[in-house]
Design brief:
With 264 residues, the protein is an alpha/beta fold. Helices cover 36% and strands 17% of the residues. The structure holds zinc ion.
Length: 264
């Protein structure tokens, strides 16, 4: 019997032909059993109007993983940005904490110097070229966008991204097909920073996040944005110390997925 939590946390998304937005959810366990093909087959014209590359023909979306190990993945979206990303990378380096950065390709090109030689312990992941909502793009536009960002991230960090976080967490439309064609796994989050509820109180905010974190959680933070987001960045040392005091180990998202007790 399928683990209910796993089913709630993860669903396999199927692109049902080229109809943008034509997406159905299915239980991960059932998907593995049925091994459903993309409609039209691997070379089917429904996959895309140009040269077909359906990837796995399915798309896994992960919010968190099912594990009893005290592991947690810290993620930062939207960067890089000078100063903010510098601070985050310096803090993580000092504390020996790996994180996963869902980066905007355009900013990776522009601020490549911020990342230079500093991503070795971290995972580089795709957050589109320009933070456009790809759920509203058609399949080819979304593919071009993700590939452009992918290439920029790979060039600058030396890592081939395997994970995609669509802007605003919008999973649908062209984003689904494009992610499938590029063999991406989509990663959302199970707990996000609540900076605006703790103005001027990095320690209080950190305590809140520490208290809310559960094994297998994916935490969402940002290394760019409104100034109130600095609350989370300033409180990062407290957050790390608090989670470590609870026995948590920090891992990248890909490492977290490897700790999943549900085999996909
Ligand atoms: Zn974003």
């Amino acid at each position: 019997m399928a683990d209910r939590r796993a089913v709630l946390r993860r669903a396999a998304l199927f692109a049902a032909g080229a109809g943008v937005g034509a997406v159905a959810f299915a239980e991960a366990a059932g998907v593995a059993d049925r091994n459903l093909p993309v409609r039209g087959g691997a070379a089917g014209a429904t996959v895309a109007s140009r040269e077909a590359h359906p990837g796995r023909g399915q798309l896994l979306v992960t919010w968190a993983v099912d594990t009893e190990q005290p592991v947690v993945a810290l993620t930062f979206d939207d960067g890089p940005r000078p100063e903010w990303t510098d601070t985050v990378l310096d803090t993580l380096h000092r504390l020996g904490v790996p994180a996963t950065f869902f980066m905007v390709g355009r900013r990776v090109r522009k601020y490549a110097h911020v990342l230079d030689g500093r991503m070795a312990r971290h995972e580089a992941a795709n957050h589109t070229w320009d933070h456009r909502d790809l759920a509203r793009a058609d399949a080819d536009e979304a593919y071009d966008d993700l590939l452009r960002a992918h290439t920029a991230i790979a060039d600058v960090t030396g890592q081939e991204p395997a994970l995609l976080r669509p802007p605003y967490g919008h999973v649908g439309g062209g984003a689904v097909l494009a992610a499938t064609r590029l063999d991406y796994r989509v990663v959302l989050w199970s707990l996000q920073m609540l900076e605006s509820e703790f103005p001027g109180d990095p320690a209080g905010h950190a305590r809140h996040i520490v208290a809310q974190t559960t094994p297998g959680a994916i935490l969402l933070a940002h290394d760019i944005g409104d100034p109130d987001r600095l609350v989370a960045i300033e409180g990062l040392p407290d957050m790390v110390a608090g989670l470590r005091a609870r026995g948590f180990e920090f891992v990248t998202v890909s490492q977290l997925m490897a700790a999943d007790t549900v085999v996909v």
